[in-house]
Amino acid sequence: MNAPARVPRHIAIVMDGNGRWAKARFQPRSFGHNAGRKAVRDVIEGCVRQGVEALTLFAFSSENWQRPEDEVSALMGLFLRALDKEVDELHAQGVRLRFVGDLAGFGDELRQRMERAMARTAQNTRLQLNIAVNYGGRWDIVQAARQAALAIGRGELALEALDEAMLGRWMSLAELPPLDLFIRTGGEQRISNFLLWQAAYAELYFTDTLWPDFDQACLARAIDDYARRERRYGRTSEQVAATVPPR
Ligand code: IPE
Ligand code: IPE
Ligand code: MG
């Protein structure tokens, strides 16, 4: 008998391949980034339909500031426009929006709009949507370590009490279900400094599909693939078979 379908509780996606998608159409890279918006909407809808609890999208990495200036400013413009246009719809769908990353790296206008969108959707529970911007996995570990050091310095935490679980509480997304499925589109098989800590036991899924072409059907394929994986967490297959799955 087949095991019951397992839906990942938390999915993260490296939305890669916009530039190549545009290049294949003899268009500027920003054309590909714009086209990627449709894929974002579709995947959000797919997650809501399938009952995924949290979705974390990599929109701009700490390293992406090194892109050509016109591409960076096109991306910032796109974020602003998307914030203006999409937040009402997300709110109506019951999506809670969070931006994760070093938001201090953005201009006041963009940062304030991000903060307003987060506050506005804070009570929503249907899908926890996290957009990683100016995010890096190493930055995340450092900011958590700094907070731990501050707590130790203030005498609120004993050094001996600082273990993986404790440091994990200061990592981004700590309040959400653990990351189950890590997807990267665009054909590259690397993490590119995305969720290093959180991906420790995530299932990895790579597809050649370029991000603007990714849709609900592609998402469903990734989820099907995930459902067939055996998550052993260091144990043996026999041990796993003998335990009742969490859901
Ligand atoms: C990902 O697509 C989007 C961002 C990094 C913002 P790319 O722009 O990296 O597209 P490719 O990899 O060049 O095709
Ligand atoms: C990772 O894609 C970042 C985002 C998708 C936002 P990149 O295209 O920047 O990654 P590398 O440079 O190919 O590793
Ligand atoms: Mg890329």
Automatic annotation (TrEMBL):
<feature type="active site">
    <location>
        <position position="16"/>
    </location>
</feature>
<feature type="binding site">
    <location>
        <begin position="61"/>
        <end position="63"/>
    </location>
    <ligand>
        <name>substrate</name>
    </ligand>
</feature>
<feature type="binding site">
    <location>
        <begin position="190"/>
        <end position="192"/>
    </location>
    <ligand>
        <name>substrate</name>
    </ligand>
</feature>
<feature type="binding site">
    <location>
        <position position="203"/>
    </location>
    <ligand>
        <name>Mg(2+)</name>
    </ligand>
</feature>
<comment type="function">
    <text>Catalyzes the sequential condensation of isopentenyl diphosphate (IPP) with (2E,6E)-farnesyl diphosphate (E,E-FPP) to yield (2Z,6Z,10Z,14Z,18Z,22Z,26Z,30Z,34E,38E)-undecaprenyl diphosphate (di-trans,octa-cis-UPP). UPP is the precursor of glycosyl carrier lipid in the biosynthesis of bacterial cell wall polysaccharide components such as peptidoglycan and lipopolysaccharide.</text>
</comment>
<keyword id="KW-0961">Cell wall biogenesis/degradation</keyword>
<feature type="binding site">
    <location>
        <position position="33"/>
    </location>
    <ligand>
        <name>substrate</name>
    </ligand>
</feature>
<feature type="binding site">
    <location>
        <position position="65"/>
    </location>
    <ligand>
        <name>substrate</name>
    </ligand>
</feature>
<keyword id="KW-0675">Receptor</keyword>
<feature type="binding site">
    <location>
        <position position="29"/>
    </location>
    <ligand>
        <name>substrate</name>
    </ligand>
</feature>
<keyword id="KW-0573">Peptidoglycan synthesis</keyword>
<comment type="subunit">
    <text>Homodimer.</text>
</comment>
<comment type="similarity">
    <text>Belongs to the UPP synthase family.</text>
</comment>
<keyword id="KW-0133">Cell shape</keyword>
<feature type="binding site">
    <location>
        <position position="67"/>
    </location>
    <ligand>
        <name>substrate</name>
    </ligand>
</feature>
<dbReference type="GO" id="GO:0008834">
    <property type="term" value="F:ditrans,polycis-undecaprenyl-diphosphate synthase [(2E,6E)-farnesyl-diphosphate specific] activity"/>
</dbReference>
<protein>
    <recommendedName>
        <fullName>Ditrans,polycis-undecaprenyl-diphosphate synthase ((2E,6E)-farnesyl-diphosphate specific)</fullName>
        <ecNumber>2.5.1.31</ecNumber>
    </recommendedName>
</protein>
<feature type="binding site">
    <location>
        <position position="16"/>
    </location>
    <ligand>
        <name>Mg(2+)</name>
    </ligand>
</feature>
<keyword id="KW-0479">Metal-binding</keyword>
<feature type="binding site">
    <location>
        <position position="184"/>
    </location>
    <ligand>
        <name>substrate</name>
    </ligand>
</feature>
<feature type="active site" description="Proton acceptor">
    <location>
        <position position="64"/>
    </location>
</feature>
<feature type="binding site">
    <location>
        <position position="21"/>
    </location>
    <ligand>
        <name>substrate</name>
    </ligand>
</feature>
<dbReference type="InterPro" id="IPR001441">
    <property type="entry name" value="UPP_synth-like"/>
</dbReference>
<keyword id="KW-0460">Magnesium</keyword>
<feature type="binding site">
    <location>
        <begin position="17"/>
        <end position="20"/>
    </location>
    <ligand>
        <name>substrate</name>
    </ligand>
</feature>
<dbReference type="InterPro" id="IPR018520">
    <property type="entry name" value="UPP_synth-like_CS"/>
</dbReference>
<keyword id="KW-0808">Transferase</keyword>
<dbReference type="Pfam" id="PF01255">
    <property type="entry name" value="Prenyltransf"/>
</dbReference>
<dbReference type="InterPro" id="IPR036424">
    <property type="entry name" value="UPP_synth-like_sf"/>
</dbReference>
